[in-house]
């Protein structure tokens, strides 16, 4: 993907090839392409002179970064607080209905669990019905 590599190289240059700007570079790449592909990660590692393992660690730790652009639009929190109020059952019911979701461990909305996110919209007290309606509106 020569175009992707060129754009990622420009993003790195915009941040002065500074390893401390890794999160910003990953966010910019995600925004540009809808994901941080393996090719993009390799380019970032080369431009910042850091290991691909460092990038993989950050990319896999934060739920914002996807390796593929066609990731599910629905993120569902499966951390302990949300599990305690039914996120596992919610995930099962969504799957039974053919609704794909990405597992996230904490959306920072523990008081209103189970928490979900569609795009940039945070949803508290999520239910199958509510999420179906929100996905239909999206």
CATH topology of the largest domain: Glutaredoxin
Give the termini separation: 30 Å
Count of runs of 4 or more consecutive helical residues? 7
Outline, from the CA principal axes? elongated
Total DSSP E strands: 4
Low-confidence stretches: none
User: What is the CATH-assigned architecture of the largest domain?
Assistant: 3-Layer(aba) Sandwich
Instruction: Provide the β-strand percentage band.
Output: 5-15%
Which bin fits the share of residues in helices? 40-55%
Which H/E pattern describes the elements?
Answer: HHHHEHHEEEH
Instruction: Give the averaged pLDDT, no decimals.
Output: 91
Task: Describe this protein's structure.
By secondary structure, this protein is α+β, with helices and mostly antiparallel strands. A hairpin with a 2-residue loop joins strand 3 and strand 4 (121-123). The chain contains seven helices and four strands, in the order H-H-H-H-E-H-H-E-E-E-H. Helices cover 51% and strands 9% of the residues. The radius of gyration is 17 Å and the shape is elongated. The chain folds into two domains: 2-61, no CATH class; 74-137, Glutaredoxin, CATH 3.40.30.10.
Key features of this structure:
7 helices; 51% helix; 138 residues; single chain; alpha+beta; elongated
């Amino acid at each position: 993907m020569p175009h992707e590599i060129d754009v990622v190289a420009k993003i790195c240059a915009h941040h002065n090839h500074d390893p401390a700007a890794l999160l910003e570079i990953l966010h910019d790449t995600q925004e540009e392409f809808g994901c941080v592909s393996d090719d993009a990660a390799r380019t970032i590692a080369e431009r910042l002179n850091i290991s691909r393992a460092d990038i993989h660690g950050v990319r896999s730790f934060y739920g914002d970064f996807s390796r593929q652009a066609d990731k599910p639009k629905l993120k569902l929190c499966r951390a302990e607080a949300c599990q305690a109020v039914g996120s596992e059952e919610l995930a099962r019911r969504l799957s039974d209905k053919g609704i794909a979701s990405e597992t996230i461990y904490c959306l920072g909305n523990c008081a209103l669990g189970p928490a979900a996110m569609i795009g940039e919209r945070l949803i508290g007290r999520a239910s199958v019905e509510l999420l179906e309606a929100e996905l239909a509106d999206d």
